[in-house]
Every structure is written in structure tokens, then in C-alpha cells.
Amino acid sequence: MRVFKFGGASVKSAEAVRNVAHVLQRQSDGPLLIVTSAMGKITNKLELLVDAYFHSKETKKMILEDVRSFHQEITAGLQIDEFDYYEVENLLIELECIIEKKRDESSSYDTEYDRIVPFGELISTKIVSTYLNKIGYKNRWIDARNFVITTSKNRAANVLWDESVPLINSSLKPLVERQTVITQGFIGRGLNHKNTTLGREGSDYSAAIFAYALDAESVTIWKDVDGVMNGDPRRFDDAVLIPKLSYNEAIELAYYGASVIHPKTIQPLKNKDIPLYVKSFIDPSMPGTVVLENASRTLNETQCYIVKENQSLIKIASKDFSFIVEDNLELIFNAFNKAGIQLNLMQNSAISFMACFNADELKRNALIDLLESKFDVEWSMGYTLLTVFNYSDDKNQLDKVVASRKIALEQKSSSALQLLLVD
Ligand code: ADP
Ligand code: ASP
Ligand code: MG
């Protein structure tokens, strides 16, 4: 049994969906679960819709029409007839009903987000499933929310493995054994029966969740690049493919920002020794990258350049000139934890602590509120975090990347160099 994941880029247009069908038709037979994300950048549009709905903006109707016409154009391009289209339309009507009703004042932004944004995945999978059935690639559409059971933390739900695994095993596995199943990434359901989502770009992770529970033989995530490369090819035109990675290497690359794999994807696969293939949907005959346990030290001398944009830098100094040691560090880390902010790089001196992170205004303000009584806090935005793995003393390449930018923070370990850059 294998798990395939097709992301937004692979289903961004009618032509792209047709290409997915070509990729699938070239695969060997055997039980297959296909996890698919929302089409193109539709999740961004649905986020705008949440905002318009939550703040009762007039634009909500326009955004909905935009979402509708985007999908209609794809279904028309795929020549999905009216009879088959009604299921897609039903979802659009359901979405319309939600946004037309007056919002329950007691419900939070994040709850509304999880009510609205999953429609991207639901509609996308309906279209892909319908099209594949139409061309004779028989499959069954399944609602992932019936299987991926999570905590009720909206927008960042954690999987409840003890609930999800038996469900997937007992009810989904027999279906996949019988027929190819198409389901959604990114979405789940809390124990309170309400929708949840796993965090942006979470569909790779969904594929890993299903693979873990199904004891799949492999997971393949189909991307618009040749595989995992030693830098984002959009940024580095001399980036080269990394044919093999160990789970640990892949976790490190993804964690520091190699956005081709969602960082949470690797752990469930590592736990069951399930290989992960990262392959190109543009040229599926290319070997791509395989992530495996015994592929250790494959990165060897390959320098990898990982970039994380939109970083904020915060400088925290104790008001009473007390040292930034255990007790103050505890307060600082607690504040980050409470605000739900992940630290990407930190450095401390006797009386100050600096760190960079990527967070929206709401979370950043919450962090500052938590710190301000005890510390003087300064912050600024617009930084880029560069992580270089297998850093060598050859300065040429690095100078090219750093260019004219200033280095605000620098940290070196035996395997990685990290620079926080600002224009
Ligand atoms: P999906 O369609 O599944 O959402 P993404 O767009 O999230 O796929 O991931 C693919 C993109 O990841 C590529 O287009 C590429 O620009 C980017 N990327 C970032 N870092 C790397 C890397 N190290 N190797 C390959 N691609 C990378
Ligand atoms: N559609 C979601 C997003 O854009 C999940 C995903 O694509 O992985 O974040
Ligand atoms: Mg994506």
C-alpha cells in the first residue's frame, strides 16, 4: 500500500489536473491512497474570506465569487459535466451559507478559520476524484475528517494517534485495499466534532499520518521541483538535487526552512521506517530524492542553503540589570511558549537576549505584553535567516548569498552556520 500526495501546485489548473492523471496512469498497480491539497493558492483566498467574514466586510461576496469562478474554470477545463459538477457546487453553496449567516459573536477567529478554509481541500479532492473517475481511473472520495482525529486547537491541531490509527486501520484500510482512495490533506476533526486544520502547508504531514496508520510501504510527495535540492531552486539557480537523505538530515533541512517538505512529515515515517520519495510531477521519470533511515551521512560535503524570510528580531534586556541566566531565561522561554511562537535563532549576553522568529502581529504583541513588566523589549522586522549546512571555509558562495546585507546575528556549530540578515 502506497500513499501519494499532490500539493497545490500540482492541481492549480485543468492542465495540471490532467497531468496528475498522467502521473497516476504511469504508476505500477497496487493499493493507493492519494492525499491532495487545495488547488493553487486557493487557501490564501480562503484566508481572505475568513478575514472578511469575521470582520463583516462587504468584500466577502467578491472573494467567494472569486473562489467559485476559479474552481468553475478548472471543472470546465476538465469537461466535468453538470451532473458530476453538482457535488462541487454543493460544497460552494455550503460555504456560501456559512458566510451569509451572521457570525456567532462568541466564536473565535481560529474556529471560523477551521470552518471555512477546509473547503479548499474538500472542493479540490472532489474535482480531482470526479475527473479521474470520468477518465476511467476509478477511485473513491473519502472525507479525511472522519479519520484524522485531533486535539481541538484550531489552526494548529495535534493528531490524536490513539484515536486516529485504529480508525484508519479498521475503516479506511479495507477501502484502500479495494480501490484507490482520494482524500484531503491538512484537515481533521477535533473530539468536539468540529473541523480542525494542521497548520499551513500541512498536507505533506497528512500523507505521513495516513502512511503511518496504514503501515504503508512508501510515501511519495509530488512537487514542481526535481526533489530536495541543496537550496530552493527559485532562489539559487545552481541548486543541485540531493538523491538521498537520512530522516535526521531531512528533519533538519525542513525544520530550518527547506519548505519542499513540511517539517512534521518525517517523524511518523521515521517511526515506522517508511521511505519518503520527493519526486517531480513535471518529469515523473526522474528519480527524485529518497529519504530513508540508512541513508545517513549522504549530505556529506554538500553545502545546503536554507532561507527563511519574514523574521522579526527581538532584543530583551532585564530592567534591573540582572543577568540573563536560568531564572530570566525561564521567564523568557515561558513567554515564547505562551504566545505560541517558535524561536528560530537565539543568542544571549550577560544582560540581554536576542532571538529571531516568524510570527503574526497578534502573537508578537502577546509576546511583548508577557515580557514587558520585567524586561525592556525592542523589536524590528524584515530579517532573513540563512542556514548553511556543511559550511565550508570557501567564502565565495556565502558572500554571493549575503551580498550587501548586514549580519544582525551569527551562530556557528560543527554542522551549520546561521546568519540573520537585514538589508
Ligand atoms: P506543494 O505544491 O506540495 O504545496 P510546495 O510549493 O510547498 O509544494 O513545495 C515546493 C517548492 O518548495 C518548490 O517550488 C521550491 O521553490 C520550494 N523549495 C524550498 N526549498 C527547497 C529545496 N531545498 N529543494 C527543493 N525545493 C525547495
Ligand atoms: N492548502 C493548505 C495550505 O495551502 C495545506 C497544504 O497545501 O499543504 O497551506
Ligand atoms: Mg504547499
Give keywords.
binds magnesium ion, binds adenosine-5'-diphosphate, 2 domains, alpha/beta, eight-stranded mixed β-sheet, about 425 residues, Carbamate kinase, binds aspartic acid, six-stranded antiparallel β-sheet, 17 strands, VC0802-like
Structural class: alpha/beta
Question: How many β-strand runs?
Answer: 17
What would CATH call the homologous superfamily of the largest domain? Answer: Acetylglutamate kinase-like
User: Could you tell me how far the N terminus lies from the C terminus, measured between alpha carbons in angstroms?
Assistant: 49 Å
Question: How do you describe this structure in short?
Answer:
By secondary structure, the protein is α/β, with parallel strands linked by helices. Helix content is 39%, strand content 24%.
Structural overview:
The protein has 423 residues and is of the alpha/beta class. It has two domains: 2-216, Acetylglutamate kinase-like (Carbamate kinase); 304-422, VC0802-like (2-Layer Sandwich), CATH 3.30.2130. It is built from 13 helices and 17 strands. The strands form three sheets. It has an eight-stranded mixed β-sheet with strand order 3-5-2-1-8-10-11-9, with helices on both faces. The protein has a six-stranded antiparallel β-sheet with strand order 13-14-12-15-17-16, with no helix packed on it. β10 (276-280) and β11 (289-292) form a beta hairpin. The mean pLDDT is 94. The structure holds adenosine-5'-diphosphate, aspartic acid and magnesium ion. Residues 7-10, 37, 201, 223-225, 228-229, 231-234, 258-260 line the site of adenosine-5'-diphosphate (ADP).
